[in-house]
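I need you to check the entry underneath: sequence plus fold tokens. Let me know what the token row says about the fold.

>
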Amino acid sequence: MGESFGRYSLGNDESLMPYVTSANIATGFHAGDPLVLEQTIRWAKQYQVAVGAHIGLPDRQGFGRRQMDLSPEELRTDIIYQLGAMDAFLKQYGLKMQHVKPHGILYRMVGEQEKYIDTFLDTIESYNPELYIMLHTGCEALKRAKARGLKTAPEVLIDLGYDENGNWVMERVKKARSPQEVAQRAVTVAKEQKIDTIQGKQIPVEGCTVCIHGDAPNASEVAQAVREAFEREQIEVVNLDGYFA
């Protein structure tokens, strides 16, 4: 959420809030601006949704989905800058940051590329070791985070394709998916710990949270369908603190 900028609107964040328990809010690098950041946090408080920092690359034109050759030190300071900006607004509303989730290609960079993994983990640990680190299950950064004793929140991206190796497939422009199809994938993830691949097979996945992208054209309908499917299947939905309590 929080990916609009100035007069350009992307997604309908307020309409998503009633259906989610945690929100990944852009911190102004890949998308968003200070007004949008504050408004999205205000909605999160109104709907009692936990807030996470959706940190990204400084690439608004590419929406944070293009690889950049940052130095580890640049990565460290960019992360601190974004976390600090979000914390400043959260302080105004008496809220705390629950988690941190990289956006776009940064997700892959800090999750899988040796040049960045430890810098990412070092930065989060030194800034706030109480933050949940949200990445897809099985990535190297999540394994190292667990070994360090950091809080982790493995996720499954239910509105993206997966290959047979368990890697999600990036979309440069988010496309609409059938709400019923995504909802069924979410139920299968929650109850069977499996997801279908683009090759038509099913692979095992492990996660405590499922992701819905707010920039999809029908994100609200997808979120509503997932939440209603969980209720029908009596799958309890809570934020991360509630899940790990």
About this structure: The first helix runs from residue 13 to 16. Strands lie at 22-26, 50-54, 97-100, 132-133, 155-157, 194-196, 202-204, 209-211.
